[in-house]
Backbone:
């Protein structure tokens, strides 16, 4: 590590050390390594002057009233801001709330938003439902659009460019720096759902103004907590995001924050192990005759690989598999049901492997997402790779028999 080492690389290099030492216990821990869980609604003040003074610190980590956060939330906020490379993090009750809260913060009636066709489904529904009803119009764009193409979609009232890279279910990698440049030239803010790219994509060095994390995924890491984080890197953006979160009564429970903090301590080793296992399983699947294509940006030659290589320092263990067109949806469902180590279910980022056939469940309106075969999303957990491969081998035999 020298002075010439790029900042992103320096930041990545000591990630494990930073995760184990940030947000440790303060002076009230009586020597325990970890901060205690601080639960509470009412905060008592010695006098009215103290109470009046506290109200001026709503944008800070300052004990005012429980819903505005306390020491356990602050510990996790600091950890998430550190992971994302931002200055402030607002915790919210779920990953979906981390999508909707900044949309409500940055958009008002009469505004227009650009959203990628591959956006997380409930985010799309929020735009076409709640936001549309409240006078905010959304144009869905091809996630692989280039700067020139995006330029044509901007209107005088476009206030937000929303990005998610790689995209949900289909893993398109976006040219975020180039798209952000166009957005900023038009005075629009750039929001990004960076859940897949946790740690591996540093949003604020790539033109993003507000980064969204479903902490439910790898930070929680154990499939037992729902939580979201909205991180920014400027005071201007913090006022916008924090103000709206307070207005909405957004809150993350201290016990959940404590679980996420606990998950975060081992984030680096889990990500490293799952990245390696995910790539090994993806390579194995790519060589199989039943498989048309594997949508894993870290595989050389896979869609989006060049942009991934330029902008990401690694990959998580969530990817897509496209089966050859001779295998119908029913056969793919039998494949998923035949797997024993992979549970059928939503979410990801936990310690366990998951499978989710997505054909028929994904909405696209800008022409993206058709890969000419049935699509399955796999999350590779912490099981041994040889056991995962043996399970998939059995599943593929069932697929062939059913196809
Ligand atoms: C899961 C997910 C969310 C939502 O997180 P929840 O905590 O389940 O609400 C948001 N964005 C992406 C990309 C996700 O995968």
Residues:
């Amino acid at each position: 590590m020298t002075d010439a080492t790029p900042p992103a690389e320096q930041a990545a290099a000591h990630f494990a050390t930073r995760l184990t030492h940030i947000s440790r216990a303060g002076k009230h821990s009586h020597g325990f390594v970890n901060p205690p869980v601080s639960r509470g609604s009412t905060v008592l003040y010695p006098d009215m002057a103290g109470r009046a003074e506290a109200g001026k610190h709503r944008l800070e980590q300052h004990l005012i009233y429980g819903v505005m956060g306390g020491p356990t939330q602050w510990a996790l906020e600091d950890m998430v801001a550190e992971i994302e490379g931002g200055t402030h993090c607002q915790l919210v009750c779920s990953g979906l709330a981390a999508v909707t809260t900044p949309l409500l913060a940055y958009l008002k009636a009469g505004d227009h938003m650009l959203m990628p066709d591959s956006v997380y489904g409930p985010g799309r529904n929020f735009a076409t439902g709640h936001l549309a009803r409240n006078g905010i119009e959304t144009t869905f764009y091809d996630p692989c659009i280039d700067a020139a193409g995006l330029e044509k979609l901007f209107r005088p009232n476009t206030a937000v460019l929303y990005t998610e890279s790689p995209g949900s279910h289909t893993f398109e990698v976006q040219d975020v720096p180039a798209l952000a440049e166009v957005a900023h030239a038009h005075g629009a803010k750039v929001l990004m759902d960076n859940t897949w790219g946790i740690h591996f994509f540093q949003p604020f060095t790539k033109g993003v103004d507000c980064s969204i994390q479903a902490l439910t995924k790898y930070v929680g890491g154990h499939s037992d907590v729902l939580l979201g984080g909205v991180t920014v890197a400027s005071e201007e953006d913090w006022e916008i995001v924090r103000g709206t979160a307070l207005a909405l009564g957004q809150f993350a429970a201290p016990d959940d924050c404590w679980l996420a903090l606990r998950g975060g301590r081992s984030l680096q080793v889990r990500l490293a192990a799952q990245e390696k296992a995910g790539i090994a399983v993806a390579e194995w699947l790519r060589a199989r005759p039943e498989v048309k294509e594997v949508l894993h940006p870290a595989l050389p030659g896979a869609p989006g690989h060049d942009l991934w290589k330029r902008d990401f320092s690694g990959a998580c263990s969530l990817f897509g598999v496209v089966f050859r067109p001779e295998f119908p949806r029913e056969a793919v469902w039998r494949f998923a049901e035949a797997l024993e180590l992979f549970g059928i279910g939503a979410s990801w980022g936990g310690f366990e492997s998951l499978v989710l056939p997505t054909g028929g469940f994904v909405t696209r309106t800008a022409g993206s997402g058709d890969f000419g075969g049935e699509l399955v999303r796999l999350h590779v957990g912490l099981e041994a790779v040889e056991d995962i491969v043996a399970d998939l081998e059995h599943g593929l035999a069932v697929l062939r028999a059913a196809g």
